[in-house]
Amino acid sequence: MLFSTIIAILCLSVVNGQTTLDKNGVGFNNGYYYSFWKDSGDATFTLNAGGRYASNWTTRTNNWVGGKGWNPGSSSRTVHYSGYFGINANANSYLSLYGWTTNPLIEYYVVESYGSYNPASCAGGTDEGSFNSGGATYQVRKCRRTNQPSIVGTQSFDQYFSVRTPKLGFGQVSGSVNFADHVRYWASRGLPLGKHDYQIIATEGYQSSGFSDITVS
User: Fold this and answer.
1) Which residues does the Swiss-Prot or TrEMBL record annotate as the active site (predicted)?
2) Choice between 2 and 91, residue whose per-residue pLDDT is larger
């Protein structure tokens, strides 16, 4: 699953104006907030101009997530993304609008594309129906994490998933997420958000390999 670190430990290289991280880090770059986290392995995260980032990872990394966006996030933002999501159908990976709130502590995902594992099938969760937004149907599921890492340390918290159906394919991708639609639907199901922390278009890999090159606006 996707988690965030509180303390950033940076190891980076700068080539042709691009900054590549191979250790966990958060901060601001070219007007956008970024977050990069991994629990092991060789995943790297490159900060490019504006809202663009690139990532590479192999199966030597167990779990990682990174992306660019905003801090704080917003319940009313429409987020646009485009670029390349380079995985195969057997890879466990997501491309999603991803973020956190506090009070209540919530980890949320609007999953636009994924590989072998549909996050709306998380064990022990509850199905919360479906709704339409932007010409797609989103399946909603709430899951519970117990004593797991979060933006405020080890905590128990809920996760909200809106999973696009049909999902986007792999390779060239583009789209928009009207986050207000998701917030309204979640609220109608008794799934409130709290005070926004960060909000990014994220790539995640779990025991897989791939690369992405994504621009956020």
Assistant:
1) 107 (nucleophile), 204 (proton donor)
2) 91
Three-state SS string across 22-37, please?
Answer: CCCEEEEECCEEEEEE
Residue 12 has pLDDT above 70, yes or no: no
Q: Which tokens hold the place of 214?
A: 């994504």
**Residue 7, pLDDT score:** 32
Q: What is the pLDDT of residues 159-216, one digit of tens each?
A: 999 999 999 989 999 999 999 999 999 999 999 999 999 999 999 999 999 999 999 9
Give all strands of the β-sheet with 52-57 in edge-to-edge order: 12-15, 18-21, 44-47, 52-57, 210-216, 78-86, 171-178
Nearest Cα neighbor of 111 from 203, 207, 181 is: 203
* All domains in the chain, ordered by first residue: 19-216 (2.60.120.180)
Q: Integer distance in angstroms from the first to the last C-alpha of the chain?
A: 25
With contact defined as beta carbons under 8 Å apart, do 116 and 131 qualify? Answer: no
Give the integer Cα–Cα distance in Å for 217 and 215.
7
Residues sharing a CB contact under 8 Å with residue 16, sequence separation 6 or more, in sequence order: none
Mean pLDDT score, 46-70: 96
Please tell me whether the overall predicted TM-score, pTM, comes out greater than 0.70 for this model: yes
Q: Mind telling me the catalytic residues?
A: 107, 204
